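Archive transcription. Copying these from loose printouts into the bound notebook so they stop getting lost. Printout 1 of 2:
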Amino acid sequence: MFQKYLIVASKKDKAGINICTHLAQFKENPVISSWAQKPSFDFYFVEDEIIFTENLNLDKINQYDFIIFASKHQSEKNEKTLSIHSPGNFRDADYGGIKGKVCPSSALFNKTLYEKLNEQLIKFNFDNFKATLECTHHGPLIDKPCVFMEIGSTEMEWSNRRAGFIMAKTIQETIEEFKENEYREIAIGIGGPHYCPNFNPLQLKSNVAISHIISGHNMPITREMILETIKKTFEDVDFALIDWKGLGKSEQRQEVIGILEENHIQWKRTSDIKR
């Protein structure tokens, strides 16, 4: 499984630097970690924006098992969020990566991150921020399993020290405690809005672990999109999880179901999952 982690942040990104500054206090001596056969992490600070593949040293990245991008999040509503998402593009690649391509994603690691993040918010009584998944979006495009951890959504939140600490503590505990769980059900998500209101509770409180999520904003959702997310999920995918109302009209839902069934992919509604 994953042993060597790389935390990537841009020197221009206040949220990324905030997270990494706090995470540095948890970094152990690499010799001791190696001797004890414990997972370890290193830092990689990039001069420019990390969403653009051309700004990254891919030779360096490929030396690690798993990549965590520490970053800011921006939104029109300026909500206070601590968010997690897999990177990749479906409709366009205006913000890095390649159209139609997504990065490898671990459903089990993403689930553990999200569980830990919610635990930290409760533990440190930090309820003025909301933990949320985001649908798969933006670059970069790399060949290693990876995830984005983001603080949103304004400069005030990006520099919030408590937010940086909670994200750092989430990363540290997930790296130290992460284990494979063969009893989890592995899924991709399809449909719904960007902040995944029907996938969030399942990632937190069900047996399902979700890797990539294709937002309903990407409709019409194609066979290529669905197969790409399955191909790029690190674990074997058991089924597609559909946000039923988040797929628009009946005709659009039937198109997606037709693609899944033609390709022998099992599917379930989010409402079918026990919590």
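Printout 2 of 2:
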Amino acid sequence: MGTDVFAGAEYNRSLSDNGRYVAFVEQAVKDYETFRTFKTNPDYRAILEHVSPELGLMYLNVVAGQTPYFFEILDRFKINDLVGSPQKIQYGPVEISPSTLRYVKVASDIVTMFGADIGDVVEIGVGYGGQMLILDQVCAISHYTLFDLKPVLDLASKYLECHILNSSYNTSTINQFDGSACYDLVISNYAFSELPSRLQRVYIEKILQKAKRGYLTMNSGLSNSVFKNDKLSLDELRDLLPEFNVLDDNPLNYPGTYIIVWGL
């Protein structure tokens, strides 16, 4: 790609803001040929779209046992594989991306825990909008707000506008948000846990403390978590977040990953 591009100052970068990721995202937003195959790019797959075929099968098995009717409508979720040229794997009669199955598993968890009517939703760290697109297939969503770096939000908007949605959405950086809105459900797939602690606290104050329900997949906060430097610990999170339960990350993606849930 050439020159590295960072969205934040050095003291204020998430782990995904590594120079190469943002540079590629900006290119994918501007250039159609790059966008057409963005899910196969190595710099992008280092951050997203890297679920292995084996892990995809484990997600599929969780979905089949937890929400069997999802298993019967897998073709509906293949909407997430129509754009970006993802790697697809044949699982029995269905060919689907393992990364899409990751989003389907999260949707299965959310429907199982909170029901299908999830109201006003906010997601912290949105990738290209795939989680929203999958939830939109099976949930009643009043409105969906996506928070991320500005270039990532541009990519997510470009991606979501390739589809016809049942719900509506808007995008925002945390600096553009005044903290006045309260959400029915906050979601984050690892992204919140990968932020520096100062930025974690801002998201907590502006969004998480006021959310009625929460579903956060975490890869920091424990002594054996993958990411340790400048991250809030689980004990610190207990003092700052609404009272929550800690659930196993099933299947276990990495050592020290877990799920924080509240509002059950």
